[in-house]
Amino acid sequence: MSASLPHSLYRSDQVRDGERKIAADLGVEMYNLMELAGCAVFETMKDRWPDAESILVCCGSGNNGGDGYVIARLALEANMSVTLWSAADPSSASGDALKAQQKFVAAGGLIGQGAFPDGDHDLIVDALFGTGLSRDLSGACLLAVNAINAINCPKIAVDLPSGLDADTGHVWGGAVIADCTVSFVGLKQGLFTGKARDYCGDILYDGLGIGEEFAAHIPASSTLLTLTLAKTLEPQRQNSAHKGHAGRVICIGGQKGMGGAIILSGQATLRSGAGLVAVLTDESHIPAVLARQPELMTRWWLEDDGIEALEETLRWADVIAIGPGLGQSEWAKKLFDAAVACGIPMVVDADALNLLAFSPMRRDNWILTPHPGEAANLLSTHVTEIERDRFSAVKELHKRYGGVVVLKGAGTIVYDGSTLQIIDAGNPGMASGGMGDVLTGVIAGCVAQMSSLSESASFGAYLHSYAADIAAQDGERGLIASDLLPLLGNNIKTESR
């Protein structure tokens, strides 16, 4: 995605109502915005696909369809071959959309309807549905979306791909798979998380001349944490710094036979800048920890040692990271209970989240890092419900458990009770074992160095994905969690990677 995208994201109702208000305040006719939107898409078409001569424009009956009629008219005026197909009865158009339709017809355009058009096209413009869609596509509409996807040519979506929910990223039964989406006035938050990332392609933005005024007066519903914003969160060290200034972290996990996860977490905690890091794990894993990373200190605890010995060990730390490979045995439960009881700031992941689901509690000084499956367990629901509306899910997690919640996945969401942030980094190569264990360590290392849990979670999540993007520059296939470790110490660079 373009690094020039605005940071502010909005719900569709904010954009719909806000653009009318701002346009009225500035004395701008709504139809003029439709013309500007069509022009923005047409200019993007010419820039990205300059050799395209034949285009298919698919229109609906609303204002999104009106944008499509403007695009089709501009293409006609540029002597392109234009096929316009309307999914709705053209006579149902009204208002600005009707005006755009009439101008297209006056320019010599023909409106097709009924069966989806056959023929080859160099480019398809998706202007079927706008931000108002709130139910599953069916019948002719679903057939049209499937037909568009079946044609082997580039697709450009007007404002958002048809079939996608602008607020949540949910797919309403099917959606156009676009190569590029041009969004207007205010970026819609649903374009940047979950399944939406499979459908939007490159996201571009055009404020239509009112974007700056809109952003100045309409409060954002969430924030896109881009490279530029992440750079402002990066922890800095004074020249006189020593290891005591960078915090002490204990990483707890790794029941017998599950040592790899907590080793990765410990390494990531070190690599992200923590001053001193200890790994508390099953005694059998100690040789592997020291062989893999001699800078890690080691701790182990046997139930026969008693809780007091464990509490004394935990009091050494400024931060606890718990969960990777922890398991759900009695040993694991006692470690978890002791970590919670000591009151130290925590990063809670993996099996520690599953233990939390069995004994729910709320506290302010922890960061929870569930993937959708763990989130579903914490909320006693199903993964499909989590992914259906990731924004509502992360808010409900915070309501029940407090602290800062990092809902992992494509377009990771960070929520601290007041601010929603979406991580604008990461790639599909991260879908491999151990990535979450590394994230746990990265965030714990950030907590050790930073004063704000919320900023630690946001920066840590960004740094993790940023390192993965660097590691995947030569290819995403076969990317593994340990590939990120040597890159976690890289300073965030705002120039193109």
Automatic annotation (TrEMBL):
The keyword NADP applies. Residues 226-495 form the YjeF C-terminal domain. It catalyses: (6R)-NADHX = (6S)-NADHX; (6R)-NADPHX = (6S)-NADPHX; (6S)-NADHX + ADP = AMP + phosphate + NADH + H(+); (6S)-NADPHX + ADP = AMP + phosphate + NADPH + H(+). The keyword Cell cycle does not apply. Its cofactor is Mg(2+); K(+). Residues 15-216 form the YjeF N-terminal domain. HAMAP family: NADHX_dehydratase (MF_01965), NADHX_epimerase (MF_01966). This is Bifunctional NAD(P)H-hydrate repair enzyme. It comes from Grimontia sedimenti. The lineage of its organism: Bacteria, Pseudomonadati, Pseudomonadota, Gammaproteobacteria, Vibrionales.
